[in-house]
Amino acid sequence: MKKALLDGKKLVRADDYTEAPKGELSCEDERCSAPMEFRKEYWAGGNVAHYSAAFVSKDVKEHRPDCWAHDAPKYRNQAYESIGKAIVGAGPIEINLNCELVKESLRGHFPRRGTVSARTVDDLLSYFRRIEQDGGDAALERTVIKWREMSIPLKEFFIDDNQDQYRDLFKRMIANPKAHEPPYLIRFNPTKNTHENKDSPINGTPVKLPQPDGKSLILLEKLVTPEFDGVLRTHNSYVVAIPRLNRETTGRKMKELESVANDQAVFIALEWKILGSYQFTPAEEPAPHPTQTKSAPRQKPFEPKP
Ligand SMILES: [Zn+2]
User: Fold this and answer.
1) Confidence band (pLDDT; 50, 70, 90) for 100?
2) How far is the CA of 93 from the centre of ligand 1 (A)?
3) For residue range 262-298, what is the model confidence (pLDDT) as tens digits?
4) Is 231 inside a domain boundary?
5) Comparison of pLDDT for 90 and 304, the residue scoring more
6) Strand 93-97 versus strand 54-57 pairing type
7) Domain range holding 9?
8) What distance in angstroms lies between residue 21's CA and the mean position of ligand 1's atoms?
9) I want to staple 154 with a disulfide (CB 3.0 to 4.6 A). Which of 131, 143, 146, 184 is the partner?
10) How far is the CA of 290 from the centre of ligand 1 (A)?
11) What is the distance in A from the centroid of ligand 1 to the CA of 260?
12) 61 CA distance to ligand 1 centroid (A)?
């Protein structure tokens, strides 16, 4: 496995890990707690086989029967098969968002052709890459995310630093404050202060939405997460989370926007609530190791065309 929990709450990545830290490593599935250990990268048989750094189970039998982390490759292969069939077909390619936001069984089953379940953000990203690779833009266009009773087109679901998507989301939330927003996949970029000051809230790079008369509305993103804040502070991450605005403050700020002078900005807090470590994954690849030139090229993060 490429990730593990340190002392049960801090997500650490094998590529960033050094043995010096100190603490108990356990399975990435925080419900599981199977003990893990770190395996450094190494070359075997002279220069024949390269093994990248990883976390390995001390005893695979210690994982829960429904652990989503240690059987991920098998699970994804099943999903790829279904996706392959769906790409060839003409109907929608459906991905059920089973992250525990929904109180459904986490176990994957494939109720009908073309529908797969995602248990983690890594699952989602790997499915999107696969769809893009094998079906191109046309297949991405047919991809929808199912969440409760909702079907969310991929181009709405994945808000990738896209100002127009933030604007649409904000408009919807203002127009319909009581509606329950579905989760979205965002790329969260922590601020420098978040990175450096581990006691600060987890703030994201502000999103500027230009308004008439040179005014601007600036969304201050903040991640709300009970404890899994390890890599979220230090890495840009893909996060599945539900957005939330404080209605009272936002209402006041919107009035303020009308009355401020031209060229002024009004700041509004936008919270993103995530519940567990399976709902985020670091977006940036670590710098390639000098000895890694012989291994397979690293997979690019999923990047849909604009
Ligand atoms: Zn496990």
Assistant:
1) low
2) 29
3) 999 999 999 999 877 788 888 755 444 434 333 333 3
4) yes
5) 90
6) unpaired
7) 3-62
8) 21
9) 143
10) 31
11) 53
12) 9
